[in-house]
Design goal:
2,3-Dihydroxybiphenyl 1,2-Dioxygenase, domain 1; four-stranded antiparallel beta sheet; single chain; Aminopeptidase; five-stranded mixed beta sheet; 27% helix; 2 domains
């Protein structure tokens, strides 16, 4: 795949209109990667030819409140997808079209799904993996906890692996984010960064945000009910800042301190005649944050 094609891929949550494309990606992915590991009857039962029935099955899954999907697309074409089932703490699937295989797309899908899992307070994810996917999931940090044979589709027996991964602890409820406000002319939905990739990694792994959507030049992230945006927009990150209202500023101060961020000391201020406890922290790319909690 060409470098410019990779750059054009972006992640999103699908809608029901993407169902036929998901069916096609699964069909192509299984045919392209599993044929060397399973007999033809297993492959056919696992991923039958795309049809109205298969599209309807994917549409119902997409519309489910419990199964959450992430897709990677380019110019409206879905090239990879995966999903988790929240109630079962299960990573249900990851499928990558052979045309973009071995370019890290599957790893991005897994990272997004794990972010969604942590946002729903899941402590771990389990999955039933095909034999051909073992090395991929091991690279993502999953370990084999058992081997099994399950019946799929028309009742064909399929050998598989049981795998599991512990996730980072969920964000304590005491440190929930309530709102975000601009400071000066900074737009919290377009916080300037010079490189989306490293910035997203920092915001998700250190600041506790979950990635919602990403393109080569923009990203949308969320923590609790608060959303922010990152943008490669030519503005200077050193001149940008915003304010986050949180439910327990002391708990958040401890959380960030434990992660080595070195926030400023907590202090008391008044805003609109109301007392506040606040502290400041700066991310390594230059943006300055003020975190605060209104008292009383």
């Amino acid at each position: 795949m060409l470098e410019r094609d990779r750059a054009a891929l972006h992640l999103k949550r699908p809608n029901e209109n993407d169902a036929e494309q998901l069916s096609r990606v699964q069909f192509e992915a299984v045919r392209g990667t599993a044929a060397a590991f399973y007999p033809s009857e297993v492959v056919q039962s696992w991923a039958p030819e795309p049809s109205e029935q298969r599209t309807a099955e994917f549409r119902r899954a997409i519309l489910s409140d419990d199964e959450l999907f992430v897709v990677a697309e380019r110019e409206g074409r879905v090239l990879a997808f995966g999903s988790i089932v929240v109630s079962a703490s299960e990573l249900r699937s990851v499928y990558v079209h052979p045309s973009v295989g071995r370019h890290g797309v599957g790893s991005q899908i897994v990272a997004e799904l794990e972010g969604l899992a942590m946002a729903h307070s899941l402590a771990s994810l389990e999955l039933t993996a095909s034999l051909n996917a073992e090395k991929f999931y091991v690279r993502q940090g999953y370990e084999v906890v058992g081997r099994d044979v399950r019946r799929i589709g028309t009742g064909v027996r399929m050998a598989c692996l049981k795998m599991k991964k512990a996730l980072a602890p969920p964000v304590p409820a005491a440190g929930r984010f309530v709102a975000v406000y601009p400071i000066g002319d900074t737009d919290p939905q377009g916080l300037p960064v010079r490189d989306i990739g490293p910035a997203v990694a920092y915001y998700t792994h250190v600041l506790g945000f979950t990635l919602v959507e990403k393109t080569p030049a923009r990203a949308v992230l969320a923590r609790d009910g608060v959303r922010i945006g990152l943008a490669v927009n030519g503005r200077d990150p050193e001149q940008a800042s915003c304010y986050f209202e949180v439910t327990d500023v002391a708990a958040l101060h401890r959380e960030l301190s434990d992660k080595g961020i070195e926030p400023s000391a907590l202090r008391e201020e008044r805003h609109d005649s109301r007392p506040q406890r606040i502290f400041f922290a700066k991310e390594p790319f230059g943006v300055c944050f003020c975190f605060g909690q209104t008292q009383g």
